[in-house]
Fold:
Amino acid sequence: MKFSDLKLTTPYLKLSALFYDRVEPTPLQKPFLIAVSQEAAKLLGVDEKLDEDEALVSIVNGVKKLQNSETFSMCYAGHQFGYFVPRLGDGRAINLGKVNGQNLQLKGAGRTLYSRNGDGRAVLRSSIREFLMSEAMYGLGIPTSRALALIGSESKVARERWEKGAIVLRLSPTWVRFGTFEYFNAKGEHEKLQELADYVIDESFPELKAQEGIYLKMYAKIVKNTAETLAKWQAYGFNHGVMNTDNMSIDGRTIDYGPFSFLDDYDKEYVCNHTDQEGRYSFKNQPGIAHWNLGELAKALSPIVKYDAALQILDEVFGASYETLYSQIMYERMGLQTQQENDRELFSWMLGALQSAVIDYNDFFRKLSLFDGDKSAILECCVYRNQLDEWLDVYMLRLEKESLSAEMRHKKMLHVNPKYILKNHILQEAIQKAEVDDFSMVNDLLKVALAPFDEHKELEYLCKPVPMEAKNIKLSCSS
Ligand code: AMP
Ligand code: MG
Structure:
């Protein structure tokens, strides 16, 4: 199947008119292809080469349409930094329709009814970041929207300086957000709330159909999925940066990549978003914020779900789902197969030691994967060694309680501890090249993003140490 031969459907347009606005994309000038993810194309049943599809650029640029495509933007509200904004909506995202369970959406394709003061555009640098990180999160096994193609252009876009516009064609099984429910609840449109819940069940939780207490069960699923995604973010050191309820997907996957960042050095206090002065969305706050956001969703659903029952689910399901998955992944990352009495202490000690050592979080685990008693490879990456030095001695003793051979442990750990993490400094380098029309590094990064646990001998330059001045920097929200 060829991408340009896909036939779409538009089930969202069967909802009442309040849910969306039909809008045509505004094409960029002199568009050109920068990168494609053939891996993402598989989701659509596309097996022919995307970059050989002569219609691809025109479709991503909104000039040509896939069969049966009807373009529209979605309406939603949201809590931004804790404050309710009654109407947001897709200010720069335009939906094309759906195929194979994936909703296709153009980000940066021009103004919509929901653009407010925005220009409906996305600049090249933020589009490269979203394109690559969507695929990198998938590569790490973290639920996420995906990115199929990235185009650049000669269109000028005003930010702090003039920049060039780009469009990402992104995919998700759903683009409904917590804020979509909040929109209808705030307007007192309770029938619409139910209409939306039925749509969400159809789209994301069809296994619930015909069950009793279906909306409460839907809420429980949302809580569980969100908690599990958060467990993965925390286990791999991902800081989303803008966990507003309008950026929370109703099926719990990661969406809306803005000023995100992976931790460089381990620092639980890290705040990647420069505008987040109070650190509301700091790394350590993320699970608590997800819980808060789910509380707001419970309020929004209260006309169709018993609020107390929803809160009870939130308390029971969130913590348990989060803890179970987080601890499972961390056991794997540490190469431990059995549970032993003092593991909790060992684990907290490790995080404390990492925090004080000033050491790259994910590189630590990659090095730990090959640890055999010789501490030097790890300690030479620390600024302050004492705590980690002592911890490694105790960890070595703990490993003796495992029956797995060292060789098997190394092998297993290398499969859960990535060699390649798309850290800011490397994304920044790729962006600088792209801004002078060299897209080779974007395409190199895509390769490692999709297979981060593998060795890529010719691409080792992509996992070089982070320069001191680039560590855990804060990123601008401008995009
Ligand atoms: P975000 O937090 O980046 O997901 O965006 C918050 C809201 O602002 C959403 O409703 C976006 O669609 C909207 N938005 C962000 N940037 C632009 C832009 N350049 N033009 C129009 N709307 C935008
Ligand atoms: Mg958003």
